[in-house]
């Protein structure tokens, strides 16, 4: 079994005091990084301080998004170079909220992945189908397109640096989770798709997280699936207790 990767996507939540407090709590925990990797993804404005707090810890810090250009007249955007500069090592690319609310396309996801990699950031690339797509039996087609267009032009070496997060859109923030079997089935499809486009070694080693209403009640079962290598956690990552419980579940299973 691969080392699990548990990432907390804080989204547009928490005050500065709450965000820094949460980071300090995680910093004080002794996390066995031989067994599980942990990352937090706070809002842009908190990144610099949180990178500072977690600098000597085992917790990775990343952003929830970035723009694809290095610098220039792109009002309101933040570049990968800037993220690197403040100490980030990771970045989430193509989260479904970016895709649906901010109209990000597979081609933008592709450009952002290339930009992130060129600045030495490790992306978590999100994929996943909407409820109506699942109902219409289009999950493989949708996720397959997200992968083939999103990863177009990347080399096997570059793909090895990614984590993929499978997040069925209907399970995000809804309390509805994919069953462990449903999730494992899509994870298997994702790994097979990567294998068909890149080297087998790349497909076997890439970590595929599940995301969508992961909490301590369902973490054991989801993380216990053979093709699930971690979780991208939203709501349950905003409390140190629930996040660390999920981290412990991953540690038990690794
Ligand atoms: P959730 O969010 O755990 O609150 O469903 C997951 C995500 O959007 O990454």
How far from one another are the termini?
6 Å
Strand order of the largest sheet: 1-2-3-4-5-6-7-8
Indicate the mean pLDDT: 96
Strand content: 15-25%
CATH architecture: Alpha-Beta Barrel
- Summing up helix and strand content along with how strands pair, one would put the structural category as alpha/beta
CATH class: Alpha Beta
Outline the low-pLDDT stretches.
Answer: none
Determine the CATH superfamily: Aldolase class I
Q: Any idea what the shape is? A: globular
Roughly how much helix do the residues carry, as a percent range? 40-55%
Could you describe the 3D structure shown?
It is a single chain. The protein is α/β, with parallel strands linked by helices. The chain has helices spanning 16-28, 47-53, 80-86, 96-101, 106-118, 131-135, 139-150, 156-159, 180-197, 200-205, 216-223, 240-253, and strands at residues 4-9, 36-41, 59-63, 90-93, 122-127, 163-166, 207-211, 230-233. Strands 1-2-3-4-5-6-7-8 form an eight-stranded parallel barrel, surrounded by seven helices. The model has no long low-confidence stretch (mean pLDDT 96).
């Amino acid at each position: 079994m691969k080392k699990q990767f548990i990432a907390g996507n804080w989204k547009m939540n928490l005050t500065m005091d709450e965000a820094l407090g949460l980071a300090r709590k995680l910093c004080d925990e002794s996390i066995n990084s031989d067994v599980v990797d942990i990352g937090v993804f706070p809002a842009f404005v908190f990144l610099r301080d949180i990178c500072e707090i977690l600098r000597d810890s085992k917790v990775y810090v990343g952003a929830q998004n970035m723009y694809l250009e290095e610098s220039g007249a792109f009002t309101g955007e933040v570049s990968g170079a800037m993220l690197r500069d403040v100490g980030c090592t990771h970045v989430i690319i193509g989260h479904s909220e970016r895709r649906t609310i901010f109209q990000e396309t597979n081609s933008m996801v592709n450009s952002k992945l290339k930009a992130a990699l060129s600045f030495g950031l490790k992306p978590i690339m999100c994929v996943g189908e909407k409820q109506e797509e699942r109902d219409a039996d289009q999950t493989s087609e949708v996720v397959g397109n997200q992968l083939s267009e999103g990863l177009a032009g990347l080399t096997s070496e570059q793909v090895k640096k990614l984590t993929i997060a499978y997040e069925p859109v209907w399970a995000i923030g809804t309390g509805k989770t994919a069953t462990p079997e449903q999730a494992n089935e899509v994870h298997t499809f994702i790994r097979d798709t990567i294998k068909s486009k890149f080297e087998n070694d790349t497909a076997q080693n890439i970590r595929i997280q599940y995301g969508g209403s992961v909490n301590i009640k369902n973490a054991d079962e989801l993380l216990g699936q053979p093709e699930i290598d971690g979780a991208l956690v939203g709501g349950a990552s905003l409390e140190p207790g629930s996040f660390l419980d999920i981290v412990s579940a991953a540690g038990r299973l690794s």
